[in-house]
């Protein structure tokens, strides 16, 4: 084959390579023509769908029974200054490792239907900060044997040659208040179920303990507890199935919240108790808090929340209000555009038949 023939073959190959519908932008396309006949029905359809849907969401949200108790400023039962009670927040601000206990009475005015859940809530805590969200090592939480942790964990990665277990700012700031509920009549503690409170995918896939026994610390040898923790990770629970990285309080905390005001599940009321079979009876109760978690430094607040759920989840009026608002706006815009179209508009057929020879008219 001559040089010219070879060159022609190469040129044809190049042309066939680039002469494609996708590369030459010759793919078939459809461009909608927005007219009153298509836009106005869409506005009315969205409005007629969103308003009743939002009303239903709002109804189910408001059917959720809920009681919130702010205990940020509760008074210590074991500390005093010159005979005067002192706030637990002041006690731990003086010594972070000091323990403080406080009690608050509260009243349930009507019976909560089962099932009832106990949450803790935090205000003004930004778990969504980019640096904070990255501060973890997923390989460590998966239970893999590692000799060093991710740099994202710094400055809570390691110290003096030993790795923090678990590492990172998220784990180091884990909520560690202890909440207990009591009845005021018999002064008996209400049982809380602390299992199955985390997402199943987190429990079964994302968190696992390293090889070894938790009893003799074999699984966590040569590790340190995070600086702000009072217990090591293998001591978080008396239940060996709910300890180490598989501790569900830890798993719940490690799922970062999207907003600075959030709640996380602490436990479920055990409805096998006498008198609690059908829900949470009305009456006077007391909340006992082992107050360990400081919030004054960032202007935060702490809450205890008792709540039921609907098939849509917990109480959330925002979604229903948002649907109703969008639906009403679409209906209002549809009515306004319909009036404008009737008074000033032209038929779609007339608009499509306009050309350069069409005489101008008002």
Structure described in brief:
The protein has helices at 3-18, 36-62, 88-94, 130-134, 138-141, 169-172, 200-206, 248-254, 317-344, 348-352; strands at residues 66-70, 75-81, 84-87, 100-108, 112-113, 117-123, 158-159, 162-164, 178-183, 192-193, 223-224, 262-269, 279-280, 283-291, 301-307. It is of the alpha+beta class and 362 residues long. The strands form 5 sheets. It has a 5-stranded antiparallel beta sheet. The chain has a 3-stranded antiparallel beta sheet with strand order 4-14-9.
Beginning-to-end CA distance, first to last residue: 72 Å
The run of helices and strands is HHEEEHEEEHHEEHEEHEHEEEEHH
Radius of gyration: 31 Å
Overall mean pLDDT stands at 87
Structural class: alpha+beta
Please state the overall shape, judged from the principal axes of the Cα atoms: flat
Task: Assign a percent range to the helix content.
Answer: 25-40%
Strand content: 15-25%
Low-confidence stretches: none
Spatially, the strands of the biggest sheet line up as 1-15-6-12-10
Sheet of most strands: 5 strands, antiparallel
Annotation, overall tally of beta strands: 15
Count of alpha and pi helical runs? 10
Question: Notable features of this structure?
Answer:
15 strands; 3-stranded antiparallel β-sheet; 10 helices; 362 residues; alpha+beta; flat; 5-stranded antiparallel β-sheet
């Amino acid at each position: 084959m001559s040089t010219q023939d070879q060159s022609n073959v190469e040129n044809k190959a190049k042309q066939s390579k680039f002469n494609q519908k996708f590369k030459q932008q010759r793919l078939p396309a459809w461009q909608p023509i927005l007219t009153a006949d298509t836009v106005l029905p869409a506005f009315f359809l969205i409005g007629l769908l969103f308003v009743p849907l939002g009303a239903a969401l709002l109804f189910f949200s408001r059917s959720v029974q809920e009681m919130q108790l702010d205990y940020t400023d509760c008074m210590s039962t074991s500390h005093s200054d010159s005979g005067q009670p002192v706030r637990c927040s002041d006690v731990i601000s003086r010594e972070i490792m000091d323990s403080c206990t406080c009690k608050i009475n509260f009243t349930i005015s009507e019976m909560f239907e089962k099932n009832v859940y106990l949450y803790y809530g935090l205000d003004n805590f930004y778990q969504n900060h980019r640096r904070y969200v990255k501060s973890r090592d997923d390989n460590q939480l998966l239970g893999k044997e590692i000799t060093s942790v991710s740099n994202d964990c710094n400055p809570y990665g390691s110290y003096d040659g030993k790795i923090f277990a678990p590492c990172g700012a998220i784990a180091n700031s884990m909520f560690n208040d202890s909440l207990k509920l009591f009845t005021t009549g018999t002064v008996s503690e209400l049982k809380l179920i602390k299992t199955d409170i985390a997402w199943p995918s987190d429990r079964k896939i994302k968190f696992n303990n390293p090889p070894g026994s938790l009893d003799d610390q074999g699984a966590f040898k040569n590790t340190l507890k995070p600086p702000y923790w009072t217990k090591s990770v293998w001591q978080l629970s008396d239940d060996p199935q709910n300890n180490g990285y598989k501790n569900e309080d830890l798993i719940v905390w490690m799922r970062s919240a999207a907003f600075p005001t959030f709640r996380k599940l602490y436990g479920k009321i055990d409805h096998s108790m006498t008198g609690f079979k059908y829900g949470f009876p009305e009456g006077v109760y007391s909340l006992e808090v082992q107050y360990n978690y400081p919030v004054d430094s960032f202007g935060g607040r702490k809450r205890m929340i008792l709540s039921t759920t609907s098939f849509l989840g917990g109480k959330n009026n925002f979604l229903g209000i948002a649907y109703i608002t969008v639906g009403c706006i679409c209906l209002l815009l549809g009515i306004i555009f319909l009036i404008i179209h009737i008074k000033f508009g032209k038929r779609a057929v007339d608009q499509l038949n306009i050309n350069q020879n069409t005489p101008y008219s008002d």
